[in-house]
Model the fold of this input.
Amino acid sequence: MTETSSATRERDLAEIRAQVEGERDRLSRELTRLRGDASGGTGKEAPFHEHPTEHAGEMEEHERLLAIRENLEQMNAQCQEALGRLDRGEYGICRSCGKEIDIERLKALPYATRCIPCKEARRD
Ligand SMILES: [Zn+2]
Done:
């Protein structure tokens, strides 16, 4: 018995959805943890007269956490966006030319919104 290619694609898309949902759950847990850390402070009381360089180090740590959080939020938004497109049946359709994006590309990059030729041509 041979499957039609669209049935295969459906199954691949279901796998990708499970993958993206797992990623989204991981990201939200991570974000919840980071937000908790941020609101709870560093957890240690810094002495008032601290060496300036140590203070700078703490600022950098804060900046670093903020950058991580921003990155996670961006990835989380990409996940939500991909899931939304899956729900609407728009997932895997190239935003530029309207053709189906190669399934191998989607497996490698679930958030891709353009097919390879369009991406390479940088068409919008
Ligand atoms: Zn395209």
